From TrEMBL:
The chain crosses the membrane at residues 21-45, 57-74, 139-156, 245-268, 274-294. GO terms for molecular function: ABC-type transporter activity; ATP binding; ATP hydrolysis activity; ATPase-coupled lipid transmembrane transporter activity. Residues 21-299 form the ABC transmembrane type-1 domain. The keyword Nucleotide-binding applies. InterPro entries: AAA+_ATPase, ABC1_TM_dom, ABC1_TM_sf, ABC_transporter-like_ATP-bd, ABC_transporter-like_CS, P-loop_NTPase, Type_1_exporter. It is a multi-pass membrane protein. Residues 334-567 form the ABC transporter domain. The lineage of its organism: Bacteria, Bacillati, Bacillota, Clostridia, Peptostreptococcales. Keywords: ATP-binding, Membrane, Nucleotide-binding, Transmembrane, Transmembrane helix, Transport. This is ATP-binding cassette, subfamily B. It is found in: Cell membrane. It comes from Maledivibacter halophilus.
Length: 581
């Protein structure tokens, strides 16, 4: 129980002092709760002894009134300190999470992990945010209430005091064990919930493929399974709480019965005065009240601890080391020196070394899966390498800080992500301070100004979720406009594949020609159409550079590149022939 309080206070960071004060006032409040009973008992004893005088009535009455006023005052202070604190803690924490997620390697954001992150950030943190403060208050005031009431009972009659204390301690131990079971189920609940989120994300994202290949039944089955698993574990969690709650009621009933029986027995034996026995019978409901409060707070506390553990695990993921010293680059040569890299166990890049001189074009070619995209992603430090170094302008990219690095790089990839915002904001995203003239100039160069102007609201048109209302080619051109506006000295470019129609491809090619003027370019070449002009072509195979040189050199050498080139030519003539026939 103490561990729950400790964890919540530790988690509250700079607000922990507020919470500690709230706990102190909670303790004081618990003292005042018993005040009226004690003062009434004082009056009753006086009546029983036939010694009641006017002053005793004043003492008892004012004692009751002062206790009630103080109780209200302390409660007000507790509420004042706690109210809003939970929301403030989480507002800060969410900002921290935002910064933290930015520092995680992009590779971390697989669908499984996205499910985990969403479940932690939405269900776990929301649960703690909603119930954290009230649970803390219940546990603290409940425990103090039980302790104070036990002390009062011991003072009134040590025999009953011992019975009550032993029952209380035994019940706490048993309850804690039972609630541990519910926390195991809570862990399972989180697991199935993160699987559910992943399944739903996958289903929604892949809905067009699912429909195109008639996989609805198959994929729905997997999603329904996640729904069912979640339902089953939630029912199990509820059931696992029934037993401890039932036991709690049994303990309260037994404890109450025992005290009433003992008090009556002691009165008949003449070892207890009647007012004390009378008060004891009233008081017994008071002592078991906080007990019930703790009982209701404990399972919530355990669920929160499990949530905090998961949150802690998320925050322990290895982030990219940051070095924020401002680095001024004299040139934008890119240099790989003996770079090896593995996403998981198997190396996908093996001992890669090359230099891309500034303002030149380096093309990466090779069969699918040979590591072209990985090389481009490593330049933008989407992952950190295990061996070797990647330098820009002679400085290791790990030494320059992400912001510093990324301000020098523009990436134009085939999968374009547009935010659900206006076209203007999507383009200005790369340079928020850009003027309208600059945006239009960039869009004209990227061959997208005309189609934007044809839209009903022009640049103010809202792009649908993930850019759904624009064609693939249009989205590409917008992403090129974004890059032109950014005007970064390094361009990482994924050459368009056959998914774009010839007209769009022509526009995109012109837009790219505008983008790459005077830049250091790394191009992932799929169709080999761009690379005739490349200053250097790196031919990759199974994560190694197997050939390098210009197009002319490599054609003459008759190696892997020549094979790829011939295959490409064959494919083109095959396409022409089939389209003619
Ligand atoms: N995020 C990832 N996690 C694990 N493995 C990955 C990841 N991304 C790529 N790989 C693997 O790394 C290898 C290199 O992939 P990469 O995407 O760099 O190849 P590529 O040459 O660009 O392929 P393509 O031409 O098909 O795009 C492949 O075996 C691929 O399956």
């Amino acid at each position: 129980m103490l561990s729950i309080v400790k964890r919540l206070i530790n988690f509250s960071g700079k607000y922990s002092l507020r919470l500690k004060w709230a706990i102190i006032f909670s303790i004081l409040e618990s003292f005042t709760i018993n005040g009226p009973i004690i003062f009434i008992l004082y009056g009753l004893i006086k009546i029983n002894d036939n010694t009641l005088v006017k002053e005793d009535v004043v003492i008892a009455a004012s004692g009751v009134v002062i206790s009630v006023i103080l109780r209200a005052l302390f409660r007000r202070l507790v509420d004042g300190l706690q109210s809003g604190t939970g929301y403030k803690i989480f507002a800060d924490e969410r900002m921290k999470i935002g910064d933290y997620l930015k520092k995680l390697p992009t590779g971390y954001f697989t669908e499984g992990n996205v499910g985990y992150i969403s479940a932690v950030l939405s269900s776990d943190l929301n649960f703690i945010e909603e119930h954290g403060m009230s649970t803390l208050s219940k546990i603290v005031s409940g425990s103090i209430g039980v302790i104070i009431s036990s002390i009062i009972i011991i003072i009134l009659d040590y025999r009953i005091g011992i019975v009550v204390s032993l029952t209380t301690i035994a019940s706490f131990v048993i309850l804690d064990k039972l609630f541990k079971k519910s926390s195991e189920n809570s862990m399972k609940k989180q697991e199935v919930q993160s699987k559910l989120v992943s399944a739903v994300i996958e289903y929604v994202k892949g809905i067009s493929v699912i429909k195109a290949f008639n996989l609805e039944g198959q994929k729905s089955k997997a999603t329904y399974k996640s729904f069912k698993d979640t339902r089953n574990i939630l029912i199990k969690l509820e059931k696992s709480l029934l037993k401890p709650f039932l036991s709690l009621d049994v303990f309260i009933a037994l404890g109450t019965g025992a005290v009433i029986f003992l008090a009556s027995y002691f009165v008949t034996k003449g070892t207890m005065e009647l007012p004390i026995a009378f008060m004891m019978m009233i008081f017994i409901y008071q002592i078991f009240l906080p007990f019930r409060v703790i009982g209701s707070a404990l399972p919530l506390g355990r669920i929160m601890i499990a949530g905090l553990d998961r949150y802690g695990k998320l925050m322990e993921e290895k982030i990219l080391k940051e070095n924020n010293t401002e680095v001024n680059l004299n040139n934008f040569d890119i240099e790989f020196h003996r770079v090896s890299f593995a996403y998981e166990k198997e190396k996908v890049l093996k001992d890669i070394s090359f230099k891309a001189k500034e303002k030149t074009m380096t093309a990466l070619v090779g069969p699918s899966g040979c590591g072209k995209t990985t090389i481009a992603n490593l330049i933008a430090r989407f992952w950190d390498i295990e061996k070797g170094s990647i330098k820009i302008g002679g400085i290791d990219i790990r030494e320059m800080g992400m912001e510093n690095l990324l301000k020098n790089i523009s990436m134009v990839f085939q999968r374009v992500y547009l935010f659900n915002d206006t076209i203007l904001n999507n383009i200005k995203f790369s340079k928020p301070e850009a003027t309208m003239e600059e945006v239009i100039k960039a869009c004209k160069k990227a061959r997208c100004h005309n189609f934007i102007m044809d839209l009903e609201n022009g640049y103010d048109t809202i792009v649908g979720e993930a850019g759904a209302t624009l064609s693939g080619g249009e989205k590409q051109r917008i992403s090129i406009a974004r890059a032109i506006l950014k005007d970064a000295p390094i361009i990482l470019l994924d050459e368009a594949t056959a998914s774009v129609d010839p007209d769009n491809e022509k526009h995109i090619q012109r837009a790219i020609d505008e983008l790459i003027k005077e830049k250091t370019i790394i191009v992932i070449a799929h169709k080999l159409s761009t690379i005739n002009d490349a200053d250097q072509i790196l031919v990759l195979n199974e994560g190694k550079i197997v050939q390098r040189g210009t197009h002319g050199d490599l054609i003459r050498k008759r190696g892997k590149y020549n094979d790829l080139w011939e295959k490409r030519m064959e494919a083109r003539s095959w396409k022409i022939n089939t389209s003619v026939s």
